[in-house]
Structure formats: C-alpha cells, structure tokens
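Lab meeting, action items carried over

1. Structure of the two-component assembly. Owner: GW. Status: complete.
Input record:
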Amino acid sequence: MNHAYSVAAVTVVVLVTLLIGALGLRISRTTSDFYVASRTVGPRLNAAAISGEYLSAASFLGVAGLVLLQGPEMLWYPVGYTAGYLVLLLFVAAPLRRSGAYTLSDFAEARLESTQVRRLASLFVVGIGWLYLLPQLQGAGLTLEILTGAPGWLGGLVVAVVVTGAVAAGGMRSITFVQAFQYWLKLTALLVPALFLLAAWYGDDAPRARFDAPATFREHTSVRFQETVRIDLDQPLTVSVSGTVDDRAYEGDHDVALASGPHRVTGGTVLRFPAGAAVPEKSTGKGDGRAAGSSTWAHPLADSREEHPLYATYGLILATFLGTMGLPHVAVRFYTSPNGRAARRTTLVVLALIGAFYLLPPVYGVLGRIYAPELVLTGDADAAVLVLPERVLGGVLGDLLGALLAGGAFAAFLSTASGVTMAVAGVLTQDVLPARGVRHFRLATVLAIAVPLAVSTVVANVPVADAVGLAFAVSASSFCPLLVLGIWWRGLTPPGAVAGLVVGGGAALTAVMTTRAGLSVSGWTHTLLAWPAVWSVPLGFLTMVAVSLATRDRIPGGTAAILARLHLPEELTDTPEGAADQ
Amino acid sequence: MPTTPRPRRETVTGVPRGSRASQGARGSRTPGHAPARSEISEQTTLGATYVRSLMRSQLRTALLGLGALAPLIGTLPLLFLLPRVLTGAALPASGPFVWAALGLVAYPVMWLIARWYVHRAERNERDFRGLLEGR
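Predicted assembly:
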C-alpha cells in the first residue's frame, strides 16, 4: 500500500474539516448559533449532518469486516442502525424537538421537574458518550497504523485535536457543516471504489463468494502473523513456513506438511499457502474470548452468536432498534431543527441517506471474502475496505482509490467523534462545570474528549472496541423507556424514572461488563449476558411503570402542560419558546 | 417490542376526530369558537381533552408504523430459520434470500413506512388545527 497517497488523503480530510470549522466560526456569532446553530438548520443540511455523524467507523469499516468473517447475517447491524432511526421517528422525533430540550438531561428535567432525575440522566449521557468515543479513538489509531505505519496512539490524538478544534471553535454551526460535508465524502469514498472493484470483479468472470464453506485462497498467498495464533486444519495441508510452527523453528521457506487438527503459529511467522487451499479456521482457545478472527467492532458479541444465534439476533435487533433514540449525539441534533414538523421530515431524509449508504459495505464484505480471505486468519477484517483496491486493482489506480477510502474512514472517525464530543460537552457545561457560557463550553470540550483519549491509551489492547454495541444496549434499556414513557404516558413519576434508569440501564451495563471481564464463558448464561437487551429493555420499562404506579402522588404538577407542548404543533402553543437560554 | 402503555381510554364527547381537514381551511373559522385555543393554553378540562385526542391519534399512528416494522423486518430471523427447520439440514442460512432481504429490500421498506408515518402524523396535526379553528 502506498503510504504517501493515504497520508495525503487523511491530511486533506483533516485540513478541510478544520477549514469548514473555521468558516463556521466566522458566521457563528451568538450563543444560540454556538449551541444549536440558532435552530435554523433546514431538513436537507441537517439530515446530511445527522447521517454524517451517525455513520461511524463501525459502519464504514466494521460492517464489511463482519460480513467477510461471518456472512450475510451480520447485515443485521446496518439494518438495525437504520431501523433505530425509524423507531425514533415514530415515537420520539417531533415531541423531543417540541420539548425544547437541548440534551436528554434537559428533557428529563423539563418533563419530570426533578433535578435528581436530571443528574442521573446526565450521568448516563456522559457514560454512554464516553463508551462511544473510546472505539472511535482506538479505531482511528488502528487505521492510521495500517495505512501509514504510524504508532497506534497517533490516530486517536489527531482525531481528538481536530475534534476539539472544530467543536470548541465554532460549536454546532461549524459542526453541522463539517458533518454534512463528511456524509457526502463518506458516501463518495465508498461508492467510487466500489464501482471500480465491481467492474474488475466482473472482468474477472465474477467469482462467487462462499459463506457456507471456508474461504479459499485464490492465488499463492503469504500471510504474516502478527501475534501467536492457534489454527485448525480440516484436512492435511502443505505450506511453506518461515518462522515457528508448533514450537519448531523453520529457516527460509521450508515446505512443511501439517496434519489436520490444531496447530500453533508463533507471532512473526510467515506462512505461504498454495492457491486453492482452504483458509484455516482460527481456533477458539480456552478462556480467550477474542479468538476466531472476528472484527474488532462487534467482537465477543459476534462470537457468542454461535451458541444461540436466534436469541443473539433478537438481542441485536432490540438493542439497535431501541437504542438509537438514546444516543447522546442523536438527541442533540433534533434541537437544531426549527420545529417538530421539520424534525420529522429531517428524520425521513436521514433514513434515505443512511439506507443508501448501507447498500455499499456488503459489497466490500463479499469482495473481501473472495480477494482477501487471509484477513479471516490475521484478524484484521476491519482492514478489508482499505486493502481491497490495492489487492484487486493494483497500480496507481488502486493506490488512489485506497487513499480515497482512507480519507473516508478518517472522516468517519472525525464526524462521529465530534458529534459525541459536542453532546457530552453540552452536558458537562450544564451539569458539571460551575458556570455556563461559551468559554466554559470550550473547557468542557477538552474534558469530554481528553478522558476517553486517556483511557484509550491506557487500555490499548483490551477489547473495548465493542463498546459501541454496549452503548446501544445501555441506551435501549435506560433512555428508551424514559423517552417513550415520558412522551406518551401521563403517569410517569420522578421516582419511577430514577428506578427505571438505574435498574434497566444498570442491568444492561452490568451484564455486558460481566461478559467482557470473562466471568461467564459459555452456555445460556453467557448468551443472556452478552445480549442483554432482550430482557433488560422490558425490565427497564416494567420498573419504570411499576414504580410510577406505586408513587402516583408524585406525578409532577405540570404534566398536562408539558405534554400539551410536546404534542401540539408549534403554532398552536401560545407562548413561543425563548431563544436558546443556555 | 416493549409494551407502550396506552393512555387511559376516555369518552370524548363532542370532539369528532378525522375527516375534518376539509373544514379546517383558513377562513372558515366560525366566530364564537376561537376559544378552543385558549381552552388549551389555560389548561381547562376541555383543553386537556383536546390534547388527549391529538395524543391518541398520534400514538395510534406511531403504533401502526411499529406494527408494520415488526412483522416486515422483525420476523425475518424466524423466516431465515424456516428452510433449516423444514429440511432439517444444518446449513447456515446464507441463501440469496438473506442477502436480498437484509442487504437491499429492508431499506426501502423502512423508508416507505417512515414516509407513510410522516404524512399521517402531519395530517393528524392538520385535522387537529381544523378542529380548533373551524368547528
């Protein structure tokens, strides 16, 4: 891979992001501009910005990697991410905008008239936000490492610095333009190479990808193992080895006949496979949750699918369908629409934009399975999108398209990270820092991204990358009940909301943390804990309803008034909301 | 899908729903009925009834949307299992049907549900405005 092109592409993306951020600074004059772009962002611009922010690296790189590894069932991820927006539209979009809430904490306080609920909601927003930022920063580090050989911490640092610059300088007005630009960049970066790749694939007599059998090497392929792995061979295989296999060192390319069964390949070894050989399975070592060459984006989650796939699929469906509405950066975006009707129409455009985008990653997954099957073995499945142009097309064209994809991947890290940082910083300014105002918001921005950045350098090789899935599960079990019941049920009380948040969100968090810590390894317990949404979402709803019914005397006095404001079209509510009085 | 609690059912007298768009056009306001708005802003019982009627029609629309999403998309994992159950073969369900459903068809289906919902929700609001202004 030509590093120079990739470095140039990433640099251009970073510079354009900063440039647009600076332009936003020039037109971002008032506090209202700063926080909510003066609530004048039309549906199209806002929808592009929302989509740009929502399509993180998990979508840009992760979906293709998962499809490569595990086949079409992994497409439930993008379908779930999209359906999450549909559920959000049905139950939340317009009322959330009409509530006048800037963050989910604002909504909780306005609806329930309780600062206690507000503080708890803030805690969840910051927690979910940091869980979401962590993989973005680590993924950026990994991508930059693959693309340019730079040290792993550099990518995260670059993203953090650029995001802080863009967010702190121009606030929401800047970020809106930046993210809208990045949506179109991401779509182009995935679409153009896909067309070239498909043409090349067609010219290659359109080989079929097989997902019901192990992938096979199309040509003589040498695979370099970064780490020590155990592989399983279905049948005997003769490979040429340079390095150590089964604790025997081989000098220079030595042809070795490996019997079927497990083998241990020491890190640093190079194996050369003959054309037509089946790609060996990476075997699941005992107590090692991270085996089986999975993608880092959904790691142990994807593993635990194998035991009870139907349950796991529904766990994924519930978490993504219901979790989207509670993601902090998603909620903030709705406030930038001028009114509830615009919020609805914006969401409709968002659905079209992200739906169009998600048609593309499967193409890379399938082509990766055909042309880069060794990624199954080395575990770098997320790199499939990045390496395909070079592998399939080669030459200057391959390098240029690879660079375009690199730029798109970096745009994915930047846009999602800036959206989440913006939301977390908003909550920190309002609920943690002593004084409000733009200067403190800038301080909060630094704080919002510095914490996950610090954590990402400390816990570098711990499987935190699937924190995205965790964030969805926690959000679906905590904020989804709060929003849905808060908007549609008069009986919700502050104690009910607190109990539901703690029990539902807490249960989901504990369950996933338990699996990550490796406390449960297999069986139904493991599956139940790895995919908590199926039981933790109903638990959150039931707790909230039950406790609210038990504390009926605590229904806030202003419930009727606030519900009227949530549901009546703006022109019917007599008192127009004040300007963004942050 | 979680159970969304429905608001308590109440008899709404004198506030017919729907099919009022035709009368709701601007200028058809009859004098003497403008107070409907102030009923709402002053939070009288009648005003609360108006709001409830709007909430109920919007909730019904949202639930219908969810009712379209759940069987169309939510039952797909079960559908994918069918061939395996019927034939008893232990093949992973990676047939062309899965690719077509999850990779292609799911998105336009969801978008159409969304478009239907947006139109319907806006019509509910128009009807409601007509109810207040033109009764």
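2. GW to write a short summary for the group page. Key points so far: DSSP finds four helices and no strands in chain B. Chain B has one domain: 35-134.
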